[in-house]
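Example 395, ligand nicotinamide-adenine-dinucleotide.
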Amino acid sequence: MLMWAGTNYLEMKRKSNVSGKIILALALTMLCIMLFKGSPSFGRPSPFSRLESGVTHVLVTGGAGYIGSHAALRLLKDSYRVTIVDNLSRGNMDAVKVLQGQFSEPGRLQFIFADLGDAKAVNKIFSENAFDAVMHFAAVAYVGESTLEALRYYHNITSNTLTILEAMAAHGVKTLIYSSTCATYGEPDKMPITEETPQVPINPYGKAKKMAEDIILDFSRNSKMAVMILRYFNVIGSDPEGRLGEAPRPELREHGRISGACFDAARRIIPGLKVKGTDYKTRDGTCVRDYIDVTDLVDAHVKALANAKPGKVGIYNVGTGKGSSVKEFVEACKKVTGVDIKVEYLDRRPGDYAEVYSDPSKIRLELNWTAKYTLEESLRTAWKWQKAHWNGYRI
Ligand SMILES: NC(=O)c1ccc[n+]([C@@H]2O[C@H](COP(=O)([O-])OP(=O)(O)OC[C@H]3O[C@@H](n4cnc5c(N)ncnc54)[C@H](O)[C@@H]3O)[C@@H](O)[C@H]2O)c1
């Protein structure tokens, strides 16, 4: 009996403790609601969710990546409102943090973590936000890798562009600036490459981008959307003020671009440079490419956005018009870094083409755009960032 009475007493005490906790939780919840209601943003829609006269809201897909982050920086500097969508598969959240640090005022910049392969997530983004324009940078973008993982490239580039386009059409977004590539031309007989040069891509990366372009063009024939397709040549350099740079994942080094490899060699992260192919029909046997500075490239995007016209498609090469060979590139890199980089010459890499450089006269005449940076200047700004960021954005 005593024992029973003791159990009963403990049970009652436990119940009263539980009720006390519930009351405390309710009181705290009420307090939070009252504080939240009292906050200046309560009840007001997010500035990203409505169009505002005098403010252009641009969705930058892939804005955590190399080119996308530089584009977002330029747009923010020019007073655009920016939403970055990225799945961080390749980009750097730290690049977004740099931008957030620079443009922290409400309504300037938001970051949304999402995969463009997820159509439901993409539609939710378009339902909850009101965009004036989309700059679609997000993509996997390594020629060599595309020959090994073709399906991934078609899905990520072609299929995701279709998803973006459908969402834009469904939500009445008026302007698309599309990141295409000179890889869509393949290996043309004649140089320089104009926008009329036949597009005969020779690797899955170039083919996936060409298919995405075709989808956009077919859609445009019966749409009022303003479209600009920019076909970039090889992008190098970084923000001249040193805020952003190119910091690909270490695991991508092997597929990486020449500038990254040169700097890695200069920093002795890798023993030297492997130049793949010395028997191309070019002036010194190595591949010739047209290296365009990222600051010049984002300037072309801003001009494309300003000149985009409803129901019209503009297609432009974005390059310097000048080809540099891999050997010339390496010499410029040695000069800028001051390091005598070791070079090993190997056989060709599958999917590469001998010589590619642009004729940029169309973009000069129609959008009043020209490249300003020389190869050496671009390498100098990029090297400056590298030296200040030995571990990429982690410094
Ligand atoms: N770098 C060049 O030399 C070059 C040349 C021609 C064209 N391009 C094009 O420019 C664009 C940007 O290239 P980059 O060099 O900045 O590459 P990057 O890898 O630095 O950036 C791409 C960004 O897209 C994101 N991304 C990829 N797949 C995604 C997905 N499914 N959902 C959401 N985000 C995704 C990545 O996380 C990354 O942040 C690409 O479309 C590329 O094809 C680049």
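Summary: The pocket of nicotinamide-adenine-dinucleotide is lined by residues 62, 64-68, 86-91, 115-117, 137-141, 156, 160, 179, 181, 232, 234-235 (CB under 6 Å).
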